[in-house]
User: What shape does this take?
Amino acid sequence: QVQLVESGGGLVQPGGSLRLSCVASGRTFSAYARAWFRQAPGKEREFVASIVWSGGATTYADSAKGRFSISRDNTKNMVSLQMNSLIPEDTAVYYCAARGYGDTKYSYWGQGTQVIVSS
Assistant: This one.
């Protein structure tokens, strides 16, 4: 069983920064890609950013471009999301996800970490 565990959420003022991390554990798992999604109250879950594990190619939602940065640490099997210039609209539960080789969707999910942007 693959487990994804997020950390780093919290309360931050508008304009502030947070860094989320997600560590994978469990059976040996080689992800094709890892990603961050988020779900705000009353809204559907949405894509934030992704990174291809081999090569490091990244993709961002328009709302994240220029403010968020996704990165990986192969030695720790960890993916991080650096979030800068946070705005109240970034308030959501952030989920880490992983997609295996040959998978067409993200099949592995973390439990989520809450991010609240408020003064």
Summary: The two ends are 40 Å apart (CA to CA). The chain has a mean pLDDT of 94.
